[in-house]
Amino acid sequence: MRQEDMEKILRVGVLLSSERDLNRLLEQILVCVMELAACDAGTLYLREGDALRFEIMRNDTLNTYSGGTKGAPNLPPVPLSCDNVCAMALLEDRTICIEDVKNNKDYDFSGPIRYDAMTGYNTRSMLVVPMRNREGERIGVLQLINALDEEGNVCAFAPDMALVVESVASQAAITIQNVRYMEEIKDLFQSFVRVMSAAVDERTPYNASHARHMAECGGRFVDYLGACEGQRSFSADEKEEFLMSILLHDIGKLVTPLEVMNKAKRLLPEQYSQIDQRMEAIRLRAEIAYLSGYITLEEKEQEISRTKDAWALIQEINTAGFVRDELLGQLEELRGRTYRDREGREHPWIESEEYAMLSIRKGTLSEEERGIMEEHVSITDRLLSQIHFSNNLSHVREWAAAHHEFLNGTGYPRHMQGDEVPYEVRMITILDIFDSLVADDRPYKRAMPVERALSILKSMAEQEGKLDKELTELFIRSRCWEA
Question: What's the distance, CA 452 to chain centroid?
Answer without folding.
Answer: 27
